[in-house]
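Cross-check.
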Amino acid sequence: MLMIPGLQGLVDKVPELATPRGFLRALLTAVGVCLVALVVLLVAEGWAPWIGLVAQLLLYVALFWLVRSFFTGRAARLTYTDAFFGRFMPAAGLNGASLLYIWLNGGGVTDPDALTRLFPTIVGGVIAVYFFLTAVVVFVRAMQVAGVDTLAGLYIYYPDEGRMYDDGIYRVVRHPVYASIDRVALGLAFVNGSTYALLLAVIFVGVWHPIWIAVEERELVHRMGERYASSMRRVPAIWPQGFSGEAKLWQVLTGRDVMSGLPVDVDDEGGRPPSDLPPAGA
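Predicted model, tokenized:
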């Protein structure tokens, strides 16, 4: 378990995670919040389809409060342990519920009794598989470079122990974890196949995550200064720009040039820093 990049750093700051009780507390918090929220969304949709959409929007309001209070917690003298269990894990659960609702919703705001597909099943399935596969690889690459400690926001609370990431997958997108989650959201929309699912995915990708990113990047600019501001001007947040950007993404993911198929050195700057300097990138 401790072979997961950055997990030791996280456990060092939250020793409770090294115990079965602490691990279960974290897991059950995220899973429990996710399941309760998902049931609420599905029941609300059962009352009336538009109520399900309203419930999803209200869920995003709750998520915004959790995310904002997590990123401002250090200034409010919140300990990282309290922020992790009381903000980060519940936010992860609500985010998960939003994703699952894209997949499991009944098919439409105006037509709750019939799921009207936008694409033939095979076409939607092929697109979904592409999004899922790239999402997994992007997430793995982000984990290899940044580690779970960074992805869990540990160094927001320990800023002197971290560094900024601008290597590996972070040379293509500034927020690869959000990029992978957005690809999952779109993939689930294509699996569901309905107009409503696509609407939910567009809200998730085009409205909710940009709000989350804006909150995070205010903290990153404050903490890292002009270097991160410069990265914001050079590197897309989530989606590579155009075909060349997607090709560059694939080059980082596969280690091969897209056109020639020849191996390229994409990890010459990648990897985690020495163990005596835990990272704190975006």
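The chain has a mean pLDDT of 84. The domain at 7-254 is CATH 1.20.120.1630 (Four Helix Bundle (Hemerythrin (Met), subunit A)). Passed to J.P. for a second look.
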